[in-house]
Design brief:
The complex is a heterodimer of chains A (283) and B (206). Chain A is α/β, with parallel strands linked by helices. Chain A contains 10 helices and 8 strands. In chain A, 47% of the residues are buried. The C terminus of chain B is likely disordered. Classes of the chains: A alpha/beta (283), B mainly alpha (206).
Chain lengths: 283, 206
């Protein structure tokens, strides 16, 4: 089973996780920029974070044979802090980078005016840079948040097929299914979505434009729940091709729209990571 | 290494017209280098070049862009390094010996050597590392051994390796020996060559 986790915050995870993910079949990930639990106090803090997402973290992932890409944005929570707003002026520089395959996570947290402005402005930036957009949906007042999200997406003029609306559930999936946007589901140990519930959604809505992620971060989460979902699909009678579509081909197709997804040699056997054997002998 | 050799090596890239146009534009409009530098790998490729050995297509293309600037090479190299992803940083480091900058960009070497990204450490120890002070250079060589960067990446290793480096390597070998671990073969060879053959281990990596 080959797995592409389209949403995982590896900065918050250990090398043990990379090791277990690689063993479970995770060969590629996208790490969206988000908040870090502790609020940032300046744009400079974002610069260090973004630099890590296009520097150190891909290197770290590579040690375990996992291909790492990123998305960058001012996230909805911190869009409410004026001290963070100057980061919007720095985004274009990062959107040009090879490893940045979308703008995100953008969208709503508390549905404030400041979030409206940051969301619409960054959708325009996605259009200007010809990039897809990863859209976070709020955890509170979610259904209305999704409705408002879809209205802003429609108004922005971005092609729906270049938008991934994430963290959906049984209630909100219906709102997004017919819009042409891609649908993301974050499989969590207890909260957002579980493997058995996900299987039911796939039975009802099919596998087209459906993406499954672990959204693993610094909270209680599990980077192997993508794999668990694939196994639950097989047990429920889905074919290996169905699983491959949801866990590999769909995320490849969505982020591939950036023209920057680099999966060269990703099917090659993972390099050994004990010691430093990747570089040794390599040059 | 010369820009002409890199230019010749890049004749076979998929889109040579893009590179030609980018080089002309940088010569007349230096600020354009920021975006062209970022996009160069997507336009030119990332694979290894058969010649010169050890260079990749993106490194060579980006190095050429830097050499094409009409002036202020040190400031441009600094800015592109500071704002670059890991591949861009590596390309800047590799371009440094080709630029008319004297020792102005040594701080970039210090930055690269401070990281734990072995690709950056290796790139910092090319020909431009002649500008590194000896203590910093020795620490960098030891860090190569420590992080597994092959010593073949170190320019002028045998010309610069001295008794102090030998003592540092011997002490490191003693630590490895005490821990029941081996030294990389190239480090053991260097130690032998420096006449510190009485070091406590001759174990080599398989």
């Amino acid at each position: 089973m080959r797995i592409f986790d389209p949403h995982i915050h590896m900065t918050s995870r250990t090398t043990d996780d990379y090791e277990r993910m690689a063993a479970a079949g995770v060969r590629a990930v996208v790490e969206p920029a988000f908040w870090l639990g502790q609020p940032r106090t300046s744009a400079a803090s974002f610069v260090d974070y973004f630099d890590s997402l296009i520097g150190w973290e891909p290197f770290r992932a590579g040690q375990f044979g996992v291909r790492h890409h990123a998305t960058v944005a001012l996230n909805p929570k911190e869009a409410n802090d004026p001290r963070c707003h100057p980061v919007l002026d720095l985004l274009p520089r990062y959107l040009d980078k090879d490893g940045v395959v979308a703008i995100g996570e953008i969208g709503y947290d508390s549905m404030t005016r400041a979030e409206d402005a940051a969301f619409a402005g960054q959708l325009a930036l996605a259009v200007a840079h010809d990039l897809p957009a990863l859209v976070h949906t709020p955890h509170r007042d979610k259904a209305r948040g999704v409705e408002r999200t879809l209205a802003v997406v429609a108004e922005s003029g971005i092609e729906p097929g270049r938008v991934l609306v994430d963290h959906l559930n049984e209630v909100t999936v219906k709102l997004v299914r017919d819009t042409g946007c891609w649908l993301g589901f974050s499989i969590y140990p207890e909260t957002k979505m579980s493997p058995p519930r996900m299987v039911e959604l796939l039975k009802t809505y099919g596998t087209e434009r459906m993406l499954v992620n672990s959204a693993a971060d610094w909270g209680r989460s599990d980077p192997l729940l993508t794999r668990a979902t694939g196994e639950a699909m097989l047990l429920a009678g889905f074919t290996e091709d169905d699983v491959d579509r949801v866990l590999w081909r769909n995320p490849v197709e969505f982020y591939g729209q950036s023209g920057k997804l680099d999966l060269t040699d990703v099917d090659a056997p993972a390099p050994t990571f004990a010691g430093n054997s990747i570089l040794r002998g390599g040059e | 290494m010369t820009p002409d050799r890199l230019r010749a090596a890049l004749r076979g890239v998929p889109d040579p017209q893009w590179l030609d146009a980018a080089l002309r534009r940088v010569a007349t409009e230096p600020k354009a280098i920021a975006r062209l530098f970022a996009t160069a790998a997507r336009r030119c490729g990332r694979g290894p070049l058969p010649d010169p050995p050890g260079w990749t297509v993106d490194e060579a293309a980006r190095a050429l862009l830097l050499t094409a600037l009409p002036a202020d090479h040190a400031a441009a190299a600094d800015s592109l390094y500071r704002h670059g992803d890991a591949a861009e940083k590596r390309a800047v480091l590799r371009a440094l010996p080709l630029l008319p900058i004297g020792a102005a960009c040594v701080p970039l070497l210090h930055d690269a050597i401070r990281t734990n990204d072995t690709r950056l450490i290796a790139a910092a120890l090319g020909p431009y590392s002649r500008h590194l002070e000896q203590p910093a250079w020795r620490q960098a060589v030891l860090k190569c051994v420590f992080t597994g960067v092959p010593l073949a990446a170190v320019d002028d290793l045998h010309g610069r390796a001295d008794g102090e480096l030998a003592a540092m390597l011997a002490a490191f070998a003693a630590e490895r020996h005490a821990a029941g671990r081996t030294m990389p073969a190239d480090a053991t060879d260097l130690l032998d060559r420096l006449g510190a053959g009485s070091h406590p281990t001759t174990a080599r990596e398989a």
